[in-house]
Amino acid sequence: MTELILVFKQIPWLFVALSFVFAAVIGSFLNVVIHRLPVMMKREWQQECNHYLAEYKKSVFEPNQQTLEAPIDAFPDKYNLVVPGSACPKCKANIKAVHNLPVLGWLLLKGQCAACSNRISARYPLVELITGCLVAFLAWHFGPTEQFVYTTVLTFALIALTGIDLDEMLLPDQITLPLLWLGLILNLSGTFVSISDAIIGAAAGYLSLWSIFWAFKLLTGKEGMGYGDFKLLAVFGAWFGWQVLPLVILLSSLVGAIVGLSLIAFKKLNQGNPIPFGPYLAIAGWIAMIWGESITQWYLSTLY
């Protein structure tokens, strides 16, 4: 391993290129996570509802009945991030391995299913390409270091969260909470910031948006954001300390306002309709991860 790291340091472009290829492959898996994790969660919720409804029926409508048949499983087929294999949603034809190659597979298919010519969304190669480019940039920025490994893991998670929030307006605890704890664990040894800054950052990240949420709800009677947004900001606080939080909030609010107003102007969004805030937090947090200190210093220099 040491010899390999030395090679990467001597030939940095090789490390960047291999990082791009590896990340693009992971990007293909992230497409699966973005699509399947919400479905898995909804299935779990429905199965829990079936169970509780059966228990309610037993206790209220059939109090004298000793046994009650278990509710029919609405989803008998096994469904997770691995099973079933990738297939066309229209004709159910299995996708060949060569067509699962990141970006190239979509280009070979010309964006259509090989069996039925059903259109395949361009978002799939786009996610793979973005994942590859972001991680290649991290490889160039950090080099073959621990920071590169950790920020790559964070980047993968942020891409998955962004895709899921855009589709479902949902930031799953299955991703945000492990990220939060991972950030705190990494900073036990001061990987990015001191553990005290990380703990304060996690608490301040959550409580700041939580306070805004309740202030807005008390004033308007409406919910301005979801609890997943609190947890995602807490993730950045846990990873990079409380110092990055003002910048993340400022950048995410600015980008969100620009995108929201643009969508309204082009009549892609009705005024008053909700838009996911998670993607803007993710973008702002990633920018702060790379350039946060430089941006802060530049801003302070303009004031004095």
Total domain count: 2
Radius of gyration: 23 Å
* Average pLDDT metric: 87
Low-confidence stretches: 67-72
Describe the sheet with the most strands: none
Q: What's the helical proportion of residues?
A: 55-70%
InterPro entries: Peptidase_A24A_bac, Prepilin_IV_endopep_pep, Prepilin_pept_A24_N, Prepilin_peptidase/N-MTase
Domain Prepilin type IV endopeptidase peptidase: 153-261
Keywords: Cell inner membrane, Cell membrane, Hydrolase, Membrane, Methyltransferase, Multifunctional enzyme, Protease, Transferase, Transmembrane, Transmembrane helix
Subcellular location: Cell inner membrane; Cell membrane
Describe it for me?
The protein has 2 domains: 1-144, no CATH class; 145-304, no CATH class. The longest helix has 50 residues, at 12-61. It is mostly helical and 304 residues long. 69% of the residues lie in helices and 0% in strands.
Topology overview:
Blueprint (H helix, E strand, L loop, with lengths): L1 H9 L1 H50 L42 H6 L13 H20 L3 H23 L4 H14 L8 H26 L6 H14 L4 H21 L12 H26 L1
Helix pairs in contact: 1-2, 2-4, 2-5, 4-5, 5-10, 6-7, 6-8, 7-8, 8-10, 9-10
Index terms:
Prepilin leader peptidase/N-methyltransferase; transmembrane helix; cell inner membrane; 304 residues; mainly alpha
